[in-house]
Amino acid sequence: MSERRIPFLKMNGLGNDFVVWDAREAPVRLDPDAIRQIGARDGGIGFDQMITVERSPGGADAFMRIHNRDGSEVDACGNATRCIGRLLMEENGSAAATIETNAGLLKASATDSPRRVTVDMGRPRFAWNEIPLAEEFHDTRAIELQIGPIDAPILHTPSVVNVGNPHAIFWVRDPGAYDLSRIGPMLENHPMFPERANISLAHVLSDDEVEVRVWERGVGLTEACGTAACAVGVAAARDRRTGRKVRVHLPGGPLDIEWRESDDHILMTGDTEVEFEGLLDPETLTFEKTAPGDRPILEVVR
C-alpha cells in the first residue's frame, strides 16, 4: 500500500457523477489506463467524469480539469461546473465563484438552496467549423445526417451546436423508444464529427419543457448531462420550438436552462450532491470510504 493515499470526493449533479481531486497544493497525475480503472462501475470508484481542481493560471478561483471515464480529456462539463462551484463558494464563504476551464472562464452563483447552483455557461457557437463538422453547412439548425435506410431512417436531421463541446440533437416523439445504447456509439463516432459528439434525443413537451435522453461522448448513457441540457435548450429556442427559458427533464432530474437574450449567455441551474469521501491508493488503485468531518467540503480532499 502506498504511504500517500489521495483523498477524494464523490459528487453528482442529477446522477451525472464525478470523482473530485484537489490538486492545488500537490499534483494528482493519473494516466488514461488508471482513469479507466478508477472510473469503472465494476471494481472502481465509478464515475462519468474525473474532475481535478487546480490553481488557475488566469486568476480565477480555480482551474477545473475534466477527464471522461474513457480517459480522454474534455473541455466542458456543466454538471461538474455546478458541483465545483458549490465547493468553491462554500470554501470561500461567498455567493459566487469563477472557474477556469479549457472552454473558457465560467461563473457559478448561489441560489436560495445551498445544493442548488447556477452556472453561466457562456455563449453557444453555431458555425459548422466551430462545432466542428466535417462538412460545411450554412444552417446548423438541421443538418443532413441520418442513420438507417434512406427511405425510412431511424434518426435524421439533427440540430448541432457547441456549448464548450459538440452536440447533436435529434427531435423525436419518444426519446425512450430508441435503443440509444446501440445508436449512440455510432452517432458519437460518425465521420461528420471529427471530435466526436454528444448525442441527445429530445421531445418538446410544451413551450417551456423538454424531455431528453443523452449518450455522452466518452461516457455512454448518462443520467444527466449539463452541456446537453444547455444545447437542447438553445437549439429548441433557436428553432422556435420553445421559448428561451426551459426546464429540461433528464433521467436523473430537471435542469433549468435560460438562453439570456441580453447577451446570448446560457444559464443552467440545478441540484448538486456530495455522495461520500474517500482515500485512493495510487499504486493499487484501491479505495476506501471515510467518515465525513466538520470541515468545508473541499478541505477534505487536500
Kindly describe this structure.
Homodimer. Substrate binds at residues 16, 49, 68, 78-79, 165, 198, 216-217, 226-227. InterPro entries: DAP_epimerase_AS (IPR018510), DAP_epimerase_DapF (IPR001653). Its main location: cytoplasm. Pfam families: DAP_epimerase (PF01678). This protein is mostly beta strands. The protein has two domains: 6-122 and 272-301, Diaminopimelate Epimerase, Chain A, domain 1 (Roll), CATH 3.10.310.10; 146-264, Diaminopimelate Epimerase, Chain A, domain 1 (Roll). The protein has helices at residues 32-39, 78-92, 180-188, 226-238; strands spanning 6-13, 16-22, 49-54, 62-68, 73-74, 96-101, 104-110, 116-120, 146-147, 155-156, 159-162, 166-171, 198-206, 209-216, 220-222, 245-250, 253-259, 266-271, 273-280, 287-290. The protein has an 18-stranded mixed sheet that branches. A two-stranded antiparallel sheet has the order 9-10. The protein is globular, with a radius of gyration of 19 Å.
The main pleated sheet reads as: 18 strands, mixed
- CATH C-level name of the largest domain: Alpha Beta
Structural class: mainly beta
Strand/helix succession: EEHEEEHEEEEEEEHEEEHEEEEE
| Shape category | globular
Q: Let me know the CATH homologous superfamily of the largest domain.
A: Diaminopimelate Epimerase, Chain A, domain 1
**How does CATH name the architecture of the largest domain?**
Roll
Rounded radius of gyration (Å):
19 Å
Head-to-tail CA distance between termini: 20 Å
How large is the share of residues in beta strands?
Answer: 35-45%
CATH topology of the largest domain: Diaminopimelate Epimerase, Chain A, domain 1
Global mean pLDDT: 94
Low-confidence spans: none
Helix content: 10-25%
User: How many extended strands?
Assistant: 20
Query: Helical stretch count?
Result: 4
Give the number of domains. 2
